[in-house]
Amino acid sequence: MHRFSLKKFLDSGSLFIWLCGGALSVSLLMIGGLLTLILINGMGYFWPKDLIQLTMNDGSLVLGEWVATEVIPDSESVEKPKGHERVQLKVGNRDLYGLDFRWVDQADVAHEDYPPDVVAFERREWGNFYGRIKEILEGETLVASGHEKGMAVLLPLLERTNRIQGQIHDIEHDEIGELNHSIEQARLQLRALELSGETGVDERAMIESKVQELEALYEIQNAALIALYEKLEQFRITVVDVAGEEKTFQFGSLVKFWLPNGMGVYEKLFMYVQNFWEVLSEEPREANTEGGIFPAIFGTVLMVVIMSIAVVPFGVLAAIYLKEYAKQGMVTRMIRIAVNNLAGVPSIVFGVFGLGFFVYAVGGTLDQLFFAEALPNPTFGTGGMLWASLTLALMTVPVVIVATEEGLSAVPREYREGSLGLGATKFEALWHVVLPCAMPGILTGLILAISRATGEVAPLMLTGVVKLAPSLPVDGFFPFLHLDRKFMHLGFHIYDVGFQSPNVEAAKPMVYVTTFILVLVVILLNLAAIMIRTRMRKRYAGSSV
Amino acid sequence: MQSISDPVISNGPLDQNSKPPLSTVFVKHISNDQKSMKDEQMEPMGNPLTSNNPKIAIQGMNFFYGSVQALSNVNMHIPANKVTAFIGPSGCGKSTLLRCLNRLNDLVDGTRIEGKILLEGHDIYDPDVDVTDLRTRIGMVFQKVNPFPKSIWQNVAFGPQLQNVRKRATLDEVVETSLKGAGLWEEVKDRLHTSALSLSGGQQQRLCIARALAVNPNVLLMDEPCSALDPISTGRIEELLHTLKERLTIVIVTHNMQQASRVSDLTGFFLLGELIEYDDTKTIFTNPSESRTEDYITGRFG
To answer: Quick one: which of A92, A509, B133, B232 has the fewest CB in 10 Å?
Structure first.
């Protein structure tokens, strides 16, 4: 007869195994849930949804994309008792309605259908427009009217206006941008002359005449620009919403259009990929709630790259001294404890330090010494790419030090002794044998540093991230990489779009998309580092690191 | 005398150009030191080796790890072109002694050495000795097989490259000579640029020997070189020792009694940090003068 014995059960360890397994499953479940939530909400954003037309009980019509359905939490009237549902629609047409989201009680809906002739327009201003085409005008002449004729000319016309738009963009960014750059350079030269106190009249006159030349060129370009704008204004489209209200807007403000209810699955899939690409490659519009997030992706990646370039040599050298050369004892132990604690210091503290030390002290001094002609406009004396990257490098250097030290400890003693036995000095043994073997450990440190730095927001807000950066930190003007510029960052973008945006509902999908892409960037950066590490491990297979 | 001033290895391509200046220092001292060494009386054990020119002379050596004494009053003469084996139970100090011979113990914190170790009559613990230079004269093969995670070629060329040999042709020659010296050339000549870690354990150990030979040492220290190898690989390395001792002085630490009796000419038995007996291997294994030696060899303790 076996009797159940609690002691025996506890001693057998099954409870413990269940506990461990349970802990792991809960962790995995939480991570999986988080990723799924981000994925569903983020990826759903790109899918072109059908436009539902609701006929209400009072005969009015509502047209929009379905967003959500929920049970009304508390009903106040008899007609709308508890338990009834309501739908949220994205009705667009912000210029007509004020808000582009609307809640509709299910009880008020008489009928719903999907009219095939409604068109969705994505505009540069005022968000989407959902409605029907009335007429298309070029100047005062009517090009087409009605749905079918309108659709026939819409695409060719849009392509034409997009070409004009492209020309405008080229002139504004390249030609006029270059002129502005040269004029600014000349202004700085003049200012530098003034500051140096030299009375080089010839030089001054030369620069001034050059500026006049440039300004004349600018006028020519500007005239061309005005002509193009006038040409663009010729093309207009008049649309009507479901209630019959008319709206005319220029083709220039149109990004794209599509027929949500008339598209097949493959067309939608194609558009899905297109939308995804647009978000990745375009600049934001409408207070960041629309358009793309390319500058933020670019800023994040560039910042992490510069941080890595700064943190690895710095951390590795420090770790080598601490591990290999410093006399082990009380002092090194205290330094180790300090380094470990530094890894746990809240990041905002590093941000404050970065602002005080890098931006104001170092940057301010640099400005006075080398960029005096630009003052009072600060060059390096304000937040920017370089200071943000260095602040994050400072924040992550403890991680690299700890990982490098561990990597060095993991190199078998036999490798050191083997190389020393062949007449190598300590430095030669370290450089030729120990350090290559410790590389995977060092890269582990870099991976941890990248993971921490990519998602960091607080210190960046103090040291150089902005809501909307006018230009990327890399461009065609010497010195091409402008580390003094402010930049955009995915983490800050999430905060800004999600919590600083006036249009909360419109911003919601953007928050998820940005989050999703931030996670993606972290994963990709880590994968790159992991791949390098794997290759190194293979090369040094047999070493236990 | 002659055997010392003559380079022991004459087929190494490094002989002409890269013998370090230290050797001239050594050679200069030899004529004087040799006389004085003969005057010195040999240590207590009535050593049969007094008549030989010792390659290495260990005189009154004590060694401490912190406050723990690992070796006490060790005196021995290691003759040139012979294989000398150190045997004894674990922790008796034989590996410590071996590592003192190329000053590898310098790297261990808190160690202290007393007494003298003379290489060709010159104290290797003299302050003006260049340690890295010394280590190119006294090569070492370790218990744990430790080829670097590089290619076979890079492993062998590592030592010469440290001495600033840069010419590819010279390096190729050194690699070939050394691998031939270690009896590995035929097996690896077609894959010199593959990873050394792809070799078998025995091959790796012979590669380590080749690597040590590449810097052209006079003395080769071997710390239980076969303890991790199978009998066939062990056999090959033992054969190798027989050919190598024509050019080198070999000191080998081993736990394997049969190995000591097979490969060595002389054997020293250590116990608790003391050199108990040091004699011809034949004498040690057939007619030891100390009962403790006999007990250990016949397996009655240890």
So the answer is: B232
Burial (CB count within 10 angstroms: exposed 0-12, middle 13-18, buried 19+), residue A23: exposed
CA gap B276, A351 in Å, rounded: 68
Whole-number Cα distances in Å, B276 to A89, A341, B173, B297: 97, 54, 44, 13
**How many alpha carbons fall within 13 Å on the CB side of residue B293?**
22
In the A/B pair of chains, how many CB contacts fall below 8 A? 69
* The predicted structure's pLDDT at residue A483: 85
pLDDT band of residue B3 (cuts 50, 70, 90) is very low
pLDDT surpasses 70 at A504:
yes
Per-chain mean pLDDT for chain B: 80
Q: How far apart are CA B31 and CA A117, in angstroms?
A: 111
Residue A218's pLDDT is 87
Residue B30 clears pLDDT 70, i.e. is over it: no
Provide DSSP, A412-472. Answer: -HHHHHHHHHTT--HHHHIIIIIHHHHHHHHHHHHHHHHHHHHT--HHHHHHTB-SS-SS-
Supply A21's token pair.
């397994």
CB contacts of A328 in chain B (<8 Å) are: 109
Please state, in angstroms and rounded to a whole number, the distance separating the CA atoms of residues A378 and A380: 6
* Interface test with chain B among A324, A327, A422, A434, by most B beta carbons within 10 Å: A422
Mean pLDDT of all residues belonging to chain A: 86
> With a CB-CB cutoff of 8 Å, which residues 181-200 of chain B face chain A?
195, 197
Is the CB of residue B142 less than 8 Å away from at least one CB of chain A? Answer: yes
Of B96, B132, B127, B114, nearest in space to B21 by CA: B132
The two structure tokens encoding residue A108:
């008020």
Confidence of residue B37 (pLDDT cuts 50, 70, 90): very low
> How far apart (Å, rounded) are the C-alpha atoms in residues A20 and A29?
14
Cβ separation B212–A422 shorter than 8 A: yes
Q: Which residues contact B30 (CB under 8 A, 6 or more apart)?
A: B1, B4, B5, B120, B121
Report the distance separating Cα A512 and Cα A419, nearest Å. Answer: 54
Asked if A424 reaches chain B (Cβ–Cβ under 8 Å), the answer is: yes
Residue written as token pair 């406050």: B67
Structure tokens at B180: 């031939």
- What lies within 8 Å, CB to CB, of A320 at 6+ separation is A404, A408, A430, A435
User: Which pLDDT tens digit goes with each residue over A435-461?
Assistant: 988 988 898 899 889 988 888 899 999
Phi, then psi, of A254 in degrees rounded to 5: -95, 130
CA distance B178 to A4: 71
**Mind listing the domains of chain B with CATH numbers?**
2-297 (3.40.50.300)
Position A119 pLDDT exceeds 60: yes
Interchain contact, B102 vs A417, CB within 8 Å: no
pLDDT of A124-168, one tens digit each? 888 889 988 888 888 888 888 888 888 888 888 888 888 888 888
Query: Tens digit of pLDDT for each residue in A21-33?
Result: 999 999 999 999 9
Q: Judge if ipTM > 0.85.
A: no
